[in-house]
Amino acid sequence: MDMDALKRQAAARALEEVRDGMKLGLGTGSTAKHFVELLGEKVRTGLKVVGVPTSEVTRADAIRCGVPLTTLDDIDHLDLTVDGADEIDPALNLIKGGGGALLREKIVAAASDRMIVIADESKWVEVLGRFPLPVEVIPFGLAATRAAMDRAFAQSGASGEMVIRQGKDGHAFVTDGGHWIIDAHLGRIGDAPRLAALLSVIPGVVEHGLFIGLGTSAVLAGAQGIRVVERR
Known about the structure:
Layout: H1 3-15, E1 23-26, H2 30-44, E2 50-53, H3 56-65, E3 78-83, E4 87-88, E5 94-95, H4 102-110, E6 112-120, E7 133-137, H5 142-155, E8 161-164, E9 180-185, H6 192-200, E10 205-208, E11 210-211, E12 217-222, E13 225-230
Helix pairs in contact: 1-2, 2-3
């Protein structure tokens, strides 16, 4: 079975948790896109929900699929967010942000009662860090921010190369919020909660891609079928 089919299976399983009248966070990325498309099919057959998209790309997908939208300015909490992840560890800590939407994704996840993470089995890891950690930063004072990030990595027992993410035009990738992303190639993050706390207090860091304590369950699709992992 191809990877895209596995992603759609995970999205379909998460859709089983959606109930009439729910306020939903709609994630960003290839797996989350499947969820939005399947949700749109349910909406067209009468399901009443409203969604908050985590990116302009997801907003466009939701509109195309006929999913009604709102914002966190109009409602202050969500029943459920369904989103993908770049890595998931056994504690359901995540690395997210490969698609560049980590800031809005974290705001939406934090405003939700539950977060279901949907992915194929390849995203399951024993220790986070194989996937580069995205850190959303303000361009002003970037050298000072990078130096502070380097110290944070060292204090948490991690190290690696930091690269400014490039867009398709060859210039720095710009997020929906107007910021840049530094991808930190750490290889292994032994203490993800500690690193998350250290990065969060750096003034030039807008947000980082470590999602600690936000995922409540993970739906993983693999060759042997669907596996659901609940946060302990």
